[in-house]
Structure formats: structure tokens, C-alpha cells
Amino acid sequence: MSKQTLSFQAEVAQLLHLVTHSLYSNKEIFLRELVSNASDACDKLRFEALNNNALYEDAPNLEVRVSFDREAKTLTIADNGIGLSQQEAIDNLGTIAKSGTREFVSKLSGEEKADAQLIGQFGVGFYSGFIVADKIAVESRRAGLPAGQGVRWVSTGAGDFEVEAIDRPQRGTSVTLHLRDDAADYLSTWKLKGIISKYSDHISLPILMHKEEWKEGEDDKGGGMVLTDDWETVNQASALWSRNKKDITPEQYQEFYKQISHDHEAPLAWSHNRVEGSTEYTQLLYIPAHAPFDLWNRDKVAGVKLYVKRVFIMDEAEALLPVYLRFVKGVIDSADLPLNVSRELLQESRDVRAIREGSTKRVLSMLEDLARAEKEEGASDEDKGQYAKFYAEFGSVLKEGLGEDFANRERLAKLLRFASTTSDTATVSLADYKARMKEGQEAIYYITADTLAAAKNSPQLEVFRKKGIEVLLMTDRVDEWALNHVQEFDGTPLQSVAKGAVDLGKLQDKAEKKATEEAAEAFKPVLARLKEALKDKAGDVRVTSRLVDSPACLVVSDDGMSMQLARMLKQAGQKAPEVKPVLEVNAEHPLVKKLEGSVHFNDLAHILFDQALLAEGGMPDDPASYVRRVNALLA
Ligand code: ADP
Predict the structure, then answer these.
(1) Do 136 and 154 meet the contact criterion of CB atoms below 8 Å apart?
(2) Distance of alpha carbon 281 from its chain centroid, rounded?
């Protein structure tokens, strides 16, 4: 391959422009990013070498070396990991491969200050080098390729980069940063060591630097530290999760999280355990504070990395946690799995099943702890808000578990939170609700709707409001589906207020029941005419006691699909069974009383029906006829 000049992918050019034109409060992250790439490259070599030991060549000890040259103003991060072939250098260092990074870049506003802040926190991998360098030279050779197939990649971070073939006996990659004048302070052992111990202590392989020694001054010059030819390890070089819990600071846990998750915000909680027994493994699991860009991407279904005896095996190991816990990040290190385990094998392994069960329980107890802190006296406001924060980000995903994870359904049900007629925010748990139930109340009442406003103002709630009975307001798209799996909570059935005839059970006294029955009896002739007039629209028409201020409302039969779910299916282009709702009328309402003897009976009947539909967020089949009928009456 002769020397060629190639252009960066448009997104890279955009990113580089931002990187090089923004001032940083947090320049030093470039080192974390480059060391982390070097460590990933070593992990990859170790993994590939499982099936091909020859890849180690004559250098079996994987390591990263950080060195600098004060004269030349260069800083070099070198690894003896997997390396890059010529084509890989072009592909990987000229484009943005990771979808997370790509989406992150698309979120940048173009407003320098805000973006700089974001980039500083997120880190942009290799390209962060340009925060401190005006030129980067990469030399590399992929493990297993001959020395003649090395590659040199050079760029000033403007629109393009140069690549050429070089001879490179040693395997792996060295990244040399030609530092900008204002970054000369990184040419210091002390400074570099400080950054490495801050960000990279937990990296499991050694990071080496030249040892420094005190040298006495000569003649009239004072003494000073000089670099020697000896190397020393400057990090702890043991995988964070394999260390003893009590030796790890919260900052180290958080730093590790940021590294594995590419998240700039600290996690809400973490849990680190060594599990012993028939299956042995270590788990370090984190609950993020906010949802990633691609939470809803079903292809990306896991956030946990699998290691076997400290050897990295795979990212996004979906078999280790159920899909509904895909937001959890972390590491699981198994002592029992074979090193050459594949994704397919994982699905069938008994050990993996045990790990998944154990890890699921661990995550649920982390969530329970967060939820408990909400109510704890003496907990700080921040601690109290943690679960609500979690729920706002991941509540919908957690609900998927009700249908997926039968064994933990009860624990999951306790973690649910809803808005209700007494709370506009989703903070009411089923247990809270139960504790507040009225004397004689036999069900947990709820209503589903598209929006909180529609739910709150729904006519179906009138009698509940009048009697001071709390109703849960469910407005999340998955609620309807999720509730199919929660028929009862702690022995109390859940009941939709929009399904079936309202039965308030013991909440209604004898006199009320009798009045309803009498009204129904007297209303029978009108009812028969209504049924006839609306026979194409309504499955049935009946008198109800659930309404106070509204003339009518729609409900579905007990076993029917709710109107809201049917609408959702239709919107999603799916076939929904024809739902003919039941029209319930309030015999006490003036409009309903007017029906008898009205010459406009037919129009009034249709208006009653269509209005009831509108009130719950639906749309009349023929809106123009509705308008014409109302106008005729108004005129
Ligand atoms: P990523 O977040 O994927 O690491 P980077 O921009 O940091 O993104 O790097 C892009 C790609 O370049 C990496 O995925 C990897 O394939 C390759 N790469 C970067 N640094 C090294 C290295 N030291 N050794 C081998 N490959 C590397």
C-alpha cells in the first residue's frame, strides 16, 4: 500500500471540528480514552488467542506503555494488543462505528460551550486525542500479520488523514500525540501518573511508565527528576470487580461505570458481590441514572459484559439478565464457564441460568432499596428522589417484566408506581393505595387513557370522586398490557373502572342500590328505544350509578378489550377486534330526562353516544354527522 490521503466520514469531521475548537474544562479525559482503547485491544487479543495461541508471538505479557519526549513534545500510548491491519486503520479511525457515539454526535447542538461540556463528559474515544494534540500518528500491526504489513496513520484532525504501509516488527498499536503548546503540562510523569490512577486504576493489565530518579545538580545547575530507562507499573492493574469491596472507593466504582457505560452521569446505585455455591461468579451491576439513546432498540438487549476468570468474553451478553433489565450495566465474571463459550452455548448453560436468576434478584433488591429510601425518615432529599428518578427513566421497561418474569411478578408489582386521583405524579405504589382504601372497598380501581388529563376528567371517575375513592390513572402505553398480568395485588383484585357494570360492593348503601334499581325500572321504555336507535354502535345500553355530572359514558364488558387498547392497536396498524362498547346513561341527568317525549330522540341518542366517545379520547366514526346533529339542536 503506497501512501494515500483519505477523507474522514462527515460525522467524524464534524466531531473533530468541535473537539479542536472548543476549550475544555476537562482536557485530561483524552488519556482515559486512549488507555481504555489500548486495554480493549489487549482484551481482544486475549480472546482471539484462545483459539490461536500463536497470536501472542513472542510477547505473552499484555501491557500498555505511556511515555513522553519533552524535546519533541510528544506523548505516546503504546499497547501490544490485537493491533490494526491497514484496512482496519482506515475503517476504524476514519469513521464513527459505535451507534451510541453516532447518536451522541447527532445530539450536539453546535453551540460550542454546551457541546464541549458534553464531549468532555462523554468522551469520544480515539478522537479525544485531538483535544490536546494538533497531530496524531498511529503505528500499528495486527497480531498474526507479517512485519511488512504494518500501517502508519497520520492526521492533523482537519478533514483528512494519511495512511501508508510500514514495517513494524512488534505487534499492537502506538498512538503518538504531538501536543499543542497549551498542553505541554502533560509532559510530566507526576501529572500523567495522577490521571492514570484517577481513571485507569481498575484496568486489569499493567500500565507502565519510565521510572524517574533524582539527579544532583552539576556546576551551577540545580538538581531535578530525570527519566531512567527502567519501567514501572503505575496502576493497580487488577480488575476492579476482583478486588475486595472494602478497598474500593465510591469514586472508583463510579469511574469504572463511566468507562463501561460511556455514560457521563454517575449511576444511581451499584451492587458488587461474590456469589459462591454450586455456581461461582462475581457480579458488579449498576443502575444508570438516565436512559440511553437506544433504550428502545430491541436489537440491543443487554448491558452486561461477560468475563470468564478475568478474561473478557463478550459485550452485551443478553443471556445474563432478562430483556426487561436491559438498562442494567456491569460485569459478570464467572469461574465456571468455559473460555470458548459462545452466545448460543450461553443460552443453554445451567450455570448461566443460575447467574441470571441470581443477578435478576440482585437488581430487584437494588431497586427495592432505592424505593425504601423514598420513605425512610432521615434520608436525604436526594436519596428520597432516587427511585422516582429511576422510575421516570425506566419504569416502562420494568413493566415489561410483569409479562416476562413470572417468578418475580410479585416483587415487580410492588415496584410499580402510578399517578392517581390524589397524585399527579407517578408516585403511588399498589401498597400505598391499599393502605388508603376505604372501609368496605374490595378492589384497586384504575383507569387507562392516552393522557393524564383524559384520565383525570373521565366521566367514569365521577362516582368514585363523589365517594372519595382513589383511582389509579394509567397513561403509559404498556400499562394496559402489563395489567393483564397483574390480576390482583396482595389478595385484592385490580379492577378497571371502565370495564363491566360498576360494582362498588359494600361502598354503596342499600338506599342507593334501591334508587338505582327503581330508576332503571322507570327508564325501561326509553332504554329500549335507545338500544334500537344505537344498535349499530352500542353493544348494550344500561342505566348506571357511576355518573354524577355527565349524562353518559362508555364501558366495555368485563372480558372485552378496553377501548384504549383497541385504539392503540388500530393506530399501530394492527387488527383490533371490533369492540362494541356499552353505553351507560345517567338517568338523573337533564339531558337524559329530556329524551322521553323529545321529537329529536334519534339525534339526541347519537349525540349522547358520540360525546361519551369524545370524552374518553375517542373519535366518532362520522364526525361531520355529529357536528350537524349538535348544530341542529343549537339552532
Ligand atoms: P470505540 O469507542 O469503539 O473504542 P474509538 O473511536 O475510540 O471508538 O476507536 C475506534 C476503533 O478503533 C475501535 O473500536 C478499535 O477498533 C480501533 N482502535 C482504537 N484504538 C485502538 C488500539 N489501541 N488498538 C487497536 N484498535 C484500536
Answers:
(1) yes
(2) 25
CA-based nearest residue to 32, from 94, 77, 89, 97: 77
- Tell me which of 40, 80, 312 to substitute to probe ligand 1's pocket, judged by most ligand atoms within 8 Å of the beta carbon: 40
Question: What does pTM read for this prediction?
Answer: 0.72
Pairing mode, strands 552-555 and 4-7: unpaired
SS (H, E, C) 203-227: CCCCEEEEEEEEECCCCCCCCEEEE
**528-555 pLDDT tens trace:** 999 999 998 888 898 888 888 889 988 8
Instruction: Give ∠ CA 87-93-97 in degrees, rounded to 5.
Output: 95
pLDDT of residue 362: 97
Tell which one of 92, 153, 207, 316 to mutate to probe ligand 1, the residue whose CB is within 8 A of the most ligand atoms: 92
Alpha-carbon distance of 483 to 474, in angstroms, equals: 10
Are the C-beta atoms of residues 607 and 633 closer than 8 Å to each other?
Answer: yes
Are 580 and 539 within 8 A, CB to CB?
yes
How many angstroms separate the most distant Cα atoms in the chain? Answer: 120
Q: How far apart are CA 335 and CA 278, in angstroms?
A: 11
311-314, strands of its sheet edge to edge? 269-275, 281-287, 329-334, 304-308, 311-314
Q: How far apart are CA 303 and CA 451, in angstroms?
A: 31
Which run of H or E residues covers position 428?
Answer: strand 423-428
* Amino acid found at 602: N
pLDDT in tens, 454-476: 899 888 888 899 889 999 999 98
Nearest CA to ligand 1 atom 25: 83
